[in-house]
Fold:
Amino acid sequence: AKRHSYVMVLAFLYAGFSLVLTLLVVYHLFWRPEGGGFGFLPPGGRGHSPLSPWALITSAPFVVLLAGGLISLFAGYSIWQLTRKKEVHAARHGVMNALLLPNEARLIGLLKASENGLTESRLVVESGLSKVQVHRIVKKLESQDILSKHKYGLTNKLVLAKDYAEPA
Structure:
């Protein structure tokens, strides 16, 4: 997570530098053409004839500068979203785990351990709880959208919600 933060800051810094430089070039080419500013011609006016502003903007260095700035901005934003999503996910799991009763936490742990979910009868066997206890816990967790229950023959198959199935 710390490396992600460093890369994100560097991406935002490079994006800011490139985009500010791009805007500076556009400003001097279009809104202040009389300013000279960039020294495209040596003093005295000798050398090549000056390029038009459109030719300079469509030149390879300018396009690379603009594209690099936009790509870095997008990369920094993507990394920021990724780290934010992980932090929210970890906080949500921390709060959920703090509010669960021990038997509820045990059932959720068993469901996390099984990749494809468990039947309610199998959960009774593996948890060591009675059918009634498991049924009540399942009903409570289902009402909180922590797990979903699907008909599976004469029993129910229990699957954790996507948010809770992933490790914190």
In short: The helical segments are 2-31, 53-57, 60-99, 102-113, 120-127, 131-143, 162-165.
